[in-house]
Design brief:
Helix content: 40-55%
Number of strands: 13
Structural class: alpha/beta
CATH class of the largest domain: Alpha Beta
Order of helices and strands: EEEEHHEHEEHHEHEHHEHEHEHEHHHHH
CATH topology of the largest domain: TIM Barrel
Number of helices: 16
Bound molecules: flavin mononucleotide
Length: 397
């Protein structure tokens, strides 16, 4: 066995100038005295010896990995309030509405790299990957745990959507059993090495920024977001989105914003905070309390795309926008229903039921109206119900 084992110690300190990204210790162990050398690497991966002996060559492995990084901070800070990816909810028509109403950035719903690999022409995957022109540049979210397959599919997507992608995001937070059982989604948090390999494989293959979205950890006993974030950053992630819940919590309990603070203070790349942003005030509070570069809104946007403009107005101008009127809410629900059917076909009207329930939440007669909507048998019937409800509400207001 080679007596000289070069291993890469933990990150020692931050770079002294913006042109130096990292300083690392490369240490040789084995026969003879242990020696160390510290090199500073510039953004292009060129090493400069800082301390120790030049007898230890800078790491070629590390050198190769040091691609010029994309600085996503300007994009994310101007995006400010981002629509979170939500499988089964944030389809293209809804995202277009959110974008028009002030969402700074949108993500596609997560799409399986394995699915794209084995069934590249599938209509379902094509629909997941569709986005409206107003969403450009859009973030595309992939899930999977096979580094080569992920890199291959990322490369294809990058080629297909060249010039329209903000970044390629890897889902490392999905808690669903059928996903984690295959080692994908949040299961990657239990295998940080694999997670880093996935990010590295994509970063080396694709000329687009790579990001990841993950949770606080797997369970209360396995909260590892900070170490995980550092590993992904080192592997080439250009930004990180952190949801302050564990996999064990799914979507229950409170999101722990302290974990988001800890990640933000540990990494240099921009961080997006996710969890429990249900109002403009929550969005402002998250920015102030965690120092994140952008805030992500998930369930707070369901039936409430107005939240983006409200949050932006409060954060940027200290202005409180009025709540949308009941009639406005019904009008946007109707517009959403029409857009969904135009996008996904007549049968997609069933998907609209839950959206309608969210739009009319806490409005007069909402419980009865929801019941009627749940029994609607066609898009036309659903729209007729919305029109009747609108007339009834108009009389009351
Ligand atoms: C129905 C639903 C689907 C979701 N799907 C995804 C997904 O596809 N990818 C992802 O990264 N996160 C997904 N999430 C997580 C959200 O993006 C977000 O991180 C989480 O809901 C916490 O934010 P909230 O407390 O504001 O809802 C989903 C959440 C919900 C409720």
């Amino acid at each position: 066995m080679n007596p000289y084992l070069i291993w890469f110690d933990r990150l020692l300190s931050r770079a002294p100038s913006p042109h130096c990204m990292l300083i690392r210790a490369d240490r040789r162990q084995g026969e003879g005295p242990e020696v160390t050398a510290t090199y500073a690497y510039d953004p292009w991966g060129n090493p400069t010896l800082v301390t120790g002996t030049a007898a230890i060559a800078p790491s070629t492995r590390y050198h190769r990995r040091m691609q010029p990084r994309r600085d996503l901070a300007p994009l994310l800070r101007s995006a400010l309030v981002i629509l979170a990816p939500m499988a089964g909810v944030t389809d293209a028509p809804f995202r277009a509405i959110c974008k028009r109403m002030g969402a700074g950035l949108t993500y596609t719903e997560m799409v399986s790299a394995k699915g794209l690999h084995y069934n590249p022409g599938a209509a379902a995957a094509r629909a997941l990957l569709s986005f409206a022109p107003e969403e450009v540049p859009v973030a595309i979210q992939l899930f999977g745990a096979d580094p080569q397959m992920m890199a291959e599919q990322a490369a294809r997507l990058y080629e297909r959507y060249a010039g329209r992608i903000a970044f390629l995001d890897v889902n490392m937070g999905c808690p669903v059993a059928k996903v984690v059982r295959k080692g994908e989604g949040c299961a990657l948090m239990r295998d940080p090495e694999r997670a880093a390999t996935v990010v590295r494989a994509i970063a080396e293959r694709v000329d687009a920024p790579v990001t990841a979205k993950f949770r606080a950890g797997w369970s209360a006993d396995e909260v590892n977001a900070v170490e995980f974030a550092l590993a992904l950053e080192e592997a080439g992630a250009c930004a990180l989105a952190v949801h302050g819940r564990t996999r064990e919590q799914f979507y229950s309990g409170r999101a722990d914003w302290c974990v988001i603070v800890a990640v933000k203070s540990a990494v240099r790349v921009p961080v997006i905070g996710s969890g429990d942003v249900f109002s403009a005030d929550d969005a402002k509070r998250m920015l102030e309390q965690t120092g994140v570069d952008a805030v992500m809104i998930a369930r707070g946007a369901q039936g409430n795309p107005w939240i983006f403009a409200q949050a932006r107005a409060l954060i940027e101008r200290g202005e409180r926008l009025p709540k949308p009127s009941w009639l406005e809410r019904i009008d946007v629900a109707r517009e959403h229903a029409e857009a969904l059917v135009a996008f996904a076909g007549e049968r997609a009207f069933t998907r609209m039921r839950k959206h309608v329930a969210w739009y009319v939440h806490e409005m007069p007669g909402a419980a009865r109206f929801r019941e009627l909507v749940n029994h609607a048998r066609s898009h036309a019937e659903l729209v007729a119900l919305l029109d009747e409800y609108r007339a009834w509400i108009a009389e009351k207001s």
